[in-house]
Amino acid sequence: xxxxxxxxxxxxxxxxxxxxxxxxxxxxxxxxxxxxxxxxxxxxxxxxxxxxxxxxxxxxxxxxxxxxxxxxxxxxxxxxxxxxxxxxxxxxxxxxxxxxxxxxxxxxxxxxxxxxxxxxxxxxxxxxxxxxxxxxx
Amino acid sequence: xxxxxxxxxxxxxxxxxxxxxxxxxxxxxxxxxxxxxxxxxxxxxxxxxxxxxxxxxxxxxxxxxxxxxxxxxxxxxxxxxxxxxxxxxxxxxxxxxxxxxxxxxxxxxxxxxxxxxxxxxxxxxxxxxxxxxxxxxxxxxxxxxxxxxxxxxxxxxxxxxxxxxxxxxxxxxxxxxxxxxxxxxxxxxxxxxxxxxxxxxxxxxxxxxxxxxxxxxxxxxxxxxxxxxxxxxxxxxxxxxxxxxxxxxxxxxxxxxxxxxxxxxxxxxxxxxxxxxxxxxxxxxxxxxxxxxxxxxxxxxxxxxxxxxxxxxxxxxxxxxxxxxxxxxxxxxxxxxxxxxxxxxxxxxxxxxxxxxxxxxxxxxxxxxxxxxxxxxxxxxxxxxxxxxxxxxxxx
Lengths: 137, 396
Hints:
The complex is a heterodimer.
Chain A: E1 2-7, H1 14-26, E2 30-33, H2 40-50, E3 54-59, H3 64-68, H4 71-76, E4 85-90, H5 99-109, E5 113-116, H6 120-133
Parallel strand pairs in A: 1-2, 1-3, 3-4, 4-5
Chain B: E1 4-8, E2 12-16, E3 21-25, H1 32-45, E4 52-56, E5 63-68, H2 74-84, E6 89-94, E7 108-113, H3 126-134, E8 137-142, H4 146-155, E9 159-161, H5 175-191, H6 193-196, E10 207-208, H7 209-216, E11 230-235, E12 240-245, E13 259-264, H8 273-281, H9 286-292, H10 305-323, E14 340-344, H11 347-350, H12 353-366, E15 375-378, H13 383-390
Parallel strand pairs in B: 1-4, 4-10, 5-6, 5-7, 7-8, 8-9, 11-14, 14-15
Antiparallel strand pairs in B: 1-2, 2-3, 11-12, 12-13
Helix pairs in contact in B: 2-5, 7-13, 8-10, 10-12
């Protein structure tokens, strides 16, 4: 299964990005890593070009919040992304925040799976479980 | 080696021999060869066909339509390759929105279809074939997902299939499409009567001028004190070409070439004068610029040398603005990082270094709010083009 991943916005947390790639590879995913400083349009464009089923966006410095508000509108401009699984993880706000508030907010932005300050393996276990439930894996 | 180098532009032709360099305004009522012989017969007669090298941008190059999947990858990569192959006229269409585009009425020299990495599938559907039926084109090439090639070949007549320009890491693969487009350009040149006749005086292949300029850039330090990173601006009669070092772009295009090319197709001071004036009038800073240059709007209808000078200054300002982050476009260059701006083409015969610097300084202050002052280098003797034509001799 193909996954497009990368770090959104003006965020250069390259180590976390590389760890995500390695972990996804180890779990048998085919990974297309766009690296750090990636814009939303590039994520969706990469999904279209690769035919990926999952988009995993990471954010470490709270940049995600500003960018994610645009997600629904941008995704709607693409005609074949209705079945795309959208996942985001990392540190999703500037400073500290309550996951109980943050998770619903990001789900409302259009993400299926949201992980705020959750360790990588837990997040990926949940992704695999989710894909199984949807009959995708 | 003693060679005669000839560049046929849309407005001038230049003839460079060991001794000197001549420049002549073209007589559009005459065939290029006749005009050339009329003005420089003595020089031409001194050289054997093997020693005459010609490049041309006079016939405008190929018109190209690219149909691709996304702006960030397929369309961007194909556009990049086309520009670097010397093509000026490029229209692009995003496949998913095919129905929203009007059908071009003019004959298109080449249609490029691109999209998807090789492991993708079921990308192109019947709507593509329907769209293509409405187009009037001479050549068509597919450089996308391998899995789609057979299906497209079955449904599109005379389709040329080349390796995908997007690899499995979403990186660009240039060579095959570049070679195809460069060859097509040659065939196009050879097919045009005006240019075809030039083979009477040369035994060498006639190349497109931008292709030659792009080849020169790695050798530019031979003749000029240029400090990297730099951009090269060629303001001509019909178009304005920019060649830029890749260090100046935050981009996902990773190639072996150090320099890319970009064209503003309707920004020239003779053939495209009207559209240059139109672009200037629609720029919010232009009246401030005119007042800075101590002229009024009437200068647009001034046919004198002064009018041409101001138009060239406007062209510099518009080009820099279009490439800056002030206007979002196909490419935005990090103009605060450049150390040199090299000017070539007719502009070097019209404007002095100080007149160019005046505009550059206005641009940086007004648009980028900066005191940055890159060095201006004028290629007044067409050295850039001669270095490119001589090619490998430069490094030997």
